[in-house]
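Purpose: get a first structural picture of the assembly so the mutagenesis plan has something to point at.
Setup: two entries, given in the order below. No constraints added.
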Amino acid sequence: MTGPRPAQPEPSIECGFCRHEYRASQGAVSGCSACPKGSGHCGMARCPRCGYDNPVPAARTGLLARLLARWRRS
Amino acid sequence: MPPEQQLELNEPALLGAAGQARAALRQQRVFLVGLPNVGKSSLFNALSDAYVVVSNYPGTTVGVTRGHLHLSDAEGTPFTVPIFDPPGMYGLVPLTEEERVARDALFAEDPGVVVHVLDTKDLERQLALSLRLREAGLPLVLALNMCDEAKARGIEVDAAGLAARLDVPVVTCSAITGEGLAELEAAIHAALRQPAPAPRWLDWPAAVDEARTALAASLAQDRELGTSTMPSRLPTTLAAELALEGDFELAGSGGIDEARLTAARDELEQATGHPPAFGSACFLRARARALIDGLVVKPATAATGFADRLSRLLITPWTGIPLLLVVLYLAFYQFVGVFGAGTVVGWLEEDLFGGVINPAVQSAFEALVPFQPLRDLFVGDYGLLTLGITYAIALVLPIVFFFFLVFSAVEDSGYFPRFALLVDRVFKRIGLNGRAVIPMVLGFGCDTMATVTTRTLETRRERVLATLLLALAIPCSAQLGLIMGMLGSFGFAVWLSYFGILVGVIFAVGWIAARVLPGKAATFHMELPPLRRPRVGHVLAKSFARMRWYFREVLPLFLWASVILWALDQSGGLGLLERGLAPGLSLIGLPVEATESFVIGFFRRDFGAAGLFHLHQQSLEAGGVGVLSPRQVFVGCVTLTLFVPCIAQFMIMWKERGPRAALTTTALVTLCAFVVGATVNQVLLATGWLA
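Result (structure tokens, whole complex):
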């Protein structure tokens, strides 16, 4: 067993294709090393279940989206 | 207590029968299993103490969380047992490394109790795993989690009835409210004291039974010989079932080679008429449905009923294709094409950049920079501002923004897996299955990443076919948006004709390629996630994330392309290129002015499309008379879409499929683009349409 549980867990990504939930670090997969755009610099994290590429929301855009969603609900 | 002292107390000789039972109880382990997103980790947090550790499973990067579950024995003496929270899994045949870790850990750690955590709101699709765990002979407790949410939706489950039918303890609980957790702990404790149950087999069809019995005998023989590396806790009959469903790795660890397993799978497929994995999924689902028949009461809400009905309509060809056209018309044509590329781009490009920003900057440069070539570098025909930044911000930015909004909304609704099922039947005719829709859909975002994604396809033949079709006929999002904008001004019929030609080319080339490349299409089945109304937060977050990364990548390329075109223009190279490409362009009826669009289109097809769009805008500003006629715009769009992939995609093809496949694909694609372009041009000239 190695290390304690992280204090702030990575936000999860819901796959747009199969709805599998995973973390961005689980989506950095084999294809990245072959991509000419540079490993891990495309802002996408591939779903480990179906292979669909999903965007990794930046912290600020995620916050903006949550605020807008809250505003819409209210 | 020091370890030595603990060891001493646990020595069987020093303990009575009751003491030995207590010691054995304390050495048990509790495993939580379940599908992803059923609240398994929340339940783990609610059951375990504050101190938890996350370890990578040996040989993997996948973490398994461990904590302590506090229980009391029959005398009320508290004790703890380790409780594990492995990653979620959909079944016992793993598709991902996480699922493999969860499955392997389950059988390697020999748990005293397996708590199968289920989302009470949707039991049918999860109970297949319960049935499999029962077949494994694991001591099972079912935790029907999220009972509070189920109650709020008016869903009632007869847990006692389910327990009686399954013959395992079933507890309704909520990790969030704490309801039922004490009962769950009691059920775990009781199960820990029971001996492990025997595997309970389902009434599988005779063909499956025969196939698994033959394989199981071989697996058992290897286990006896000691050559098997399969987990000892895994029954050989179940291992044979999983192997038949496609777990080649498990079969290999049990001593069954790939050729033998493939032959057994083919034989079973012939006997049952469908692939083993699909057959098992249907069988288990039917048994799960029968299991809860009469035990679950769900209110027939209008919303659920509508979503279910719509879902069925979307995957049925007769209704699915018209609905697809409705989505294309409203979302992509009207919103992205007419509003985004028409209204918003018109305002940005003509009014803001063309009327205010560019003239002001051009005046400033004329006043401040006397050297003409340097002035041209910034504000000339191919200037960094007048071409690179104007294209990026005034043309591409609004179009891709609206496109990403629509794309993310459609994606969030759960439409794409239904689209995959819809086209599965047609794709099979060209040697591909519905799974190939994933890279195809991704190709509308970025063909390069989509080409990488073709790795997920099962056979080499499918990978080569999908790579070819991606390179040929799938425009990336920015290019698609720009083309939607250009063609939007000619009406929906023209817009639809463009897609019709692309679809026709995909199937014609795919049909021919499928006959040239030997092999059969792999099977495809998938579980459909529920259809839902797109969530604003999700759509915005995804759209902004896509925009952010797109512009981080594309803006420098646009600027570099401007510099290259400026350098070619200054050196006379552009004229040479125009003369060189003139015969090819005249073949498809395009003027030499379209040369630059095709040249830069090799670097990025969206930049090439922006070039065509700009020429078209100039024609419109000149009252419809000018550089490109509607026919030429249409032919240019078709040819550019089918033209050679961008340089990044060419490189990824080289890496993924090898130099020969990359060069052959590029040559085929170029040839096909000009042949189709010339044909479309001749047809339009002959019919007089879009004259």
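Chain B touches chain A through 57 residues (CB under 8 Å).
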